[in-house]
Amino acid sequence: MGNLQASKGYIICDPSLCTGCLTCEAVCSAFKSNSVVRPELSRIKISVNIFSGTIDSFIPNPCYQCDDPKCLVACPIDGALYIDKKTGVRLVNEFLCIGCGSCVQACGQEFDPPRIMLDKEKNVAIKCDLCNLDPQCTKWCPNGAIRYIDISDFKKMGKKYIVCFDEFYTKDFGPDFEAFKGNELVYEKLYPKKESK
Q1: Neighbours of 83 (CB within 10 A)
Q2: Which domains does the chain have, with CATH numbers?
Q3: Is the backbone peptide bond immediately before 192 cis, with ω within 30 degrees of 0?
Q4: Which of 7, 85, 118, 188 is the most buried (most CB within 10 A)?
Q5: What's the pLDDT score for residue 106?
Q6: How far apart are CA 42 and CA 33, in angstroms?
């Protein structure tokens, strides 16, 4: 697809801070569904490892606004999935979407669960639109497990941001976070440097 416009912001997560409270799902669904809490319509999903049995069982699954979005490539209808020229966010045009599910299947080949899903009542695809670069889910996470960062911060740290956060934070609703850096130790465990021969 060539070089596509990058999103001006990203939601990133630290699974070690997620307690599975599902506040993000409730807030997202209420904000996107006329103040009605319907977690099945949440654009962010929390996965649960039922075999873990610890607080580390929960994993937030935000849309990462992919540089090479498979959902966009898979869509058979021109303009049903598109990139907003102002924000760079990958969006669904519900008036053009036919609900075929090609985007969900394509995303599911990269991510489990897929970050785009079908609203079965409307028969259209739905996905995170970053709330016009002001994502509500990140404002209400009580433990700071999900955060919003702009593209300049993302470029500085890249994957390290997604792996872990390392800073002091306030455990209450709507915390005010200081700048943070990725946890180098966790990053090195997940992405070890290859030894040169």
Answers
A1: 16
A2: 8-63+132-197 (3.30.70), 66-127 (3.30.70.20)
A3: no
A4: 7
A5: 96
A6: 9
